[in-house]
Design brief:
By secondary structure, the protein is an alpha/beta fold. It contains nine helices and nine strands. The protein has one domain (about 5-280): Rossmann fold (3-Layer(aba) Sandwich), CATH 3.40.50.300. Strand 8 (about 255-260) and strand 9 (about 265) form a beta hairpin.
Length: about 280
């Protein structure tokens, strides 16, 4: 069977769990524990080796250095016999913040954005600010906070959800695509990471809409079938220094789960990848 080359743009700021998810996903592919398994030797696994070692020792891994951007290619095959070559990136999440702060996009990012058919945006809702900002608060109310003796404008910053909307707008612009029209490509998956922090029993789309309504509206307007799922890559918090003995005994591949669009959970961390590859989305 001819191999289909599938690459994705993994989008996530620092601390959302990109490397932990990549390592746990890689572990499942190697152990044939999911809907996909390895179908040959993976290349360039250096970014994940330290993380895998930490998880095997029951500890969390450190953050990826800011300047790092490394693509690892994983030849995989589905349980139905479909072959793919999945390119999985690992990079420092500060790069996303720099894109938004400087409004300057490195050539390497421009190439990735314009060439990949699928985007996987990881969001850690627990660390996102959702307070009032310039887009949700009437400008007339700002006058109430100006000191008459020092009539300077108060510093009001966009909220984190406004920043995520702006990020998607920037990426679409780099592809030469406008906004306001639902599209099929690039395929989009919103992965709500660290789900165990949220203590939620609702569907991922409902949780997204409740926490980030502006982002949810933007996504539903600009994508025909966005995929919205929850993720707990580790299933519980791990310390960088103190070992979790149950992790050591059972193995990290026995931990972690995804929350499907209908709210059901599954230990198969490969499901979001399958949904992206096959275009199985759900309206938000």
């Amino acid at each position: 069977m001819q191999t289909q080359v599938k690459s994705m743009l993994l989008i996530g700021e620092s601390g959302v769990g990109k490397t932990h998810y990549g390592a746990q996903l890689l572990k499942r592919l190697m152990n044939s524990n999911g809907r996909f398994r390895m179908n040959g030797a993976a290349t360039n696994l250096e970014p994940f080796e330290a993380t895998l070692e930490s998880l095997n020792d029951g500890r969390s891994a450190g953050h990826t250095p800011t300047l790092t951007y490394v693509d690892s290619e994983w030849p995989i095959i589905s349980d139905s016999g479909e072959s793919f070559s999945l390119v999985w990136p690992d990079y420092g999440g500060e790069q996303i913040k720099n894109l938004l702060n400087t409004r300057r996009v490195p050539t390497s990012w421009k190439i990735r954005v314009s060439s990949v058919p699928a985007w996987l945006l990881m969001l850690r809702l627990h660390q996102l600010r959702v307070n009032d900002d310039l887009l949700s608060r009437p400008l007339v109310t700002l006058a109430d906070h100006v000191d008459e003796e020092s009539p300077t404008e108060p510093q009001v910053q966009p909220s984190d959800q406004a920043r995520m909307v702006e990020l998607l707008q920037m990426l679409l612009f780099l592809r030469g695509q406008g906004i306001g029209e639902a599209r099929e490509e690039p395929r989009l998956c919103l992965l709500l990471s660290c789900w165990d922090e949220l203590s939620q029993n609702d569907t991922p789309s409902a949780v997204l809409r409740r926490h980030l309504p502006m982002l949810a509206d933007f996504v539903s307007t600009n994508w025909k079938q966005p995929i919205i799922v929850g993720l707990s890559a580790l299933e519980r918090p791990l310390d960088r220094k103190v070992r979790d003995e149950e992790y050591v005994t059972r193995g990290p591949e026995q931990f972690g789960y995804v929350v499907l669009p209908d709210g059901q959970t599954s230990p198969d961390l490969t499901i979001p990848i399958e949904m992206l590859l096959k275009g199985n989305g759900t309206r938000s």
